[in-house]
């Protein structure tokens, strides 16, 4: 999935101006339930201001009167060095930036370098969870590393009435052994024991089902 498919476009953003007061910015942040807001001049992104940073700076400042402090302009506190992401980047790249930078939102640009919207922390992880099918059955399988194993695995699951929503393969400490983590959607969950049995009969070692260790299935 590309970033452009999950961004919140510029025309729908709640924004503040660099000339707004901290009081005005704080009111908008609290009114809309956000943690931070982008600072714009026209359609140009200047920076970002967060509620947390407003109060951090107040406690560190020599100003003791909160009302006077909040009359300072946003430009005095806004952070201007922001990472950006291109609209055609894949979602995984956005996730990587969120992890590294601990962001609340990520500005998105187009081919001309123009600011066109943001990707929020909330949306990116909602899509991440959906893409990995976390609401589906989790199955962990151990298998020898041989050609055609994934084709066989998908065939067995399909015949048993399952649909793979995500699949991830990992190396193990044992040479020649792979661990495959699946998320499987079952139209009828009562068929799950049958699916596990078919996998075992096909030579796959089923290690876990929904985090429960599998010992033996009759």
- The total of helices stands at 7
| Domain module tally | 2
- The strand line-up of the biggest sheet is 8-9-7-10-11
- What's the alpha carbon Rg, rounded to whole Å? 25 Å
**CATH architecture of the largest domain, please?**
Roll
Distance between the termini: 41 Å
Secondary-structure element string: EHEEHHEHEEHEHEEHEE
Which spans of ≥5 residues are poorly predicted at pLDDT below 50? 211-218
Based on CA inertia axes, which overall geometry fits? elongated
CATH hierarchy, class of the largest domain: Alpha Beta
| CATH third-tier fold name of the largest domain | CBS-domain
List the quaternary state of the chains: single chain
Q: Which structural class should the secondary elements be placed in?
A: alpha+beta
> Quick check: average pLDDT?
87
Portion in strands: 25-35%
Binned, the helix content reads: 25-40%
Number of strands: 11
- CATH superfamily caption of the largest domain: CBS-domain
Major pleated sheet? 5 strands, antiparallel
Descriptive labels:
218 residues; alpha+beta; CBS-domain; Alpha-Beta Plaits; 2 domains; 5-stranded antiparallel beta sheet; 4-stranded mixed beta sheet; 7 helices; 29% strand; elongated
Q: Layout of SSEs?
A:
Blueprint lengths: L7 E2 L12 H10 L4 E6 L2 E7 H10 L5 H4 L15 E2 L4 H11 L3 E5 L5 E6 H11 L5 E8 L4 H11 L2 E10 L5 E10 L5 H10 L3 E5 L2 E2 L5
Parallel strand pairs: 4-5
Antiparallel strand pairs: 1-6, 2-3, 5-6, 7-9, 7-10, 8-9, 10-11
Helix pairs in contact: 4-5
Can you put this structure into words, describing what you see?
With about 220 residues, this protein is an alpha+beta fold. The protein folds into 2 domains: about 5-130, CBS-domain (Roll); about 135-210, Alpha-Beta Plaits. Helix content is about 30%, strand content about 30%. The chain has a 5-stranded antiparallel β-sheet, with helices on one face. It has a 4-stranded mixed β-sheet with strand order 1-6-5-4. A two-stranded antiparallel sheet has the order 2-3. The radius of gyration is 25 Å and the shape is elongated. The model is unreliable at about 210-218 (pLDDT under 50).
């Amino acid at each position: 999935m590309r970033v452009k498919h999950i961004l919140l476009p510029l025309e729908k953003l709640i924004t503040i101006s660099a000339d707004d007061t901290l009081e005005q910015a704080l009111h908008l942040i609290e009114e809309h339930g956000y943690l931070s807001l982008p600072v714009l001049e026209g359609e140009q992104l200047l920076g970002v201001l967060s509620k947390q940073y407003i109060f951090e700076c107040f406690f560190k400042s020599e100003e003791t009167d909160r009302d006077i402090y909040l009359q300072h302009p946003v430009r005095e506190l806004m952070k201007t060095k922001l990472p950006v992401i291109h609209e055609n980047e894949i979602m995984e790249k956005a996730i990587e930036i969120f992890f590294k930078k601990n962001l609340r939102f990520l500005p998105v640009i187009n081919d001309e370098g123009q600011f066109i919207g943001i990707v929020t922390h909330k949306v990116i992880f909602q899509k991440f969870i959906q893409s990995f099918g976390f609401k589906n059955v989790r199955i962990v399988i151990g298998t020898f590393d041989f050609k055609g194993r994934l084709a066989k695995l998908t065939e067995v699951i399909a015949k048993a009435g399952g649909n793979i929503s995500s699949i991830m393969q990992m190396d193990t400490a044992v040479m020649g052994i792979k661990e495959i983590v699946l998320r499987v959607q079952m139209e009828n969950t009562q068929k799950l024991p049958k699916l596990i049995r078919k996998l075992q009969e096909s030579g796959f070692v089923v290690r876990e089902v929904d985090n429960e260790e599998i010992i033996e299935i009759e």
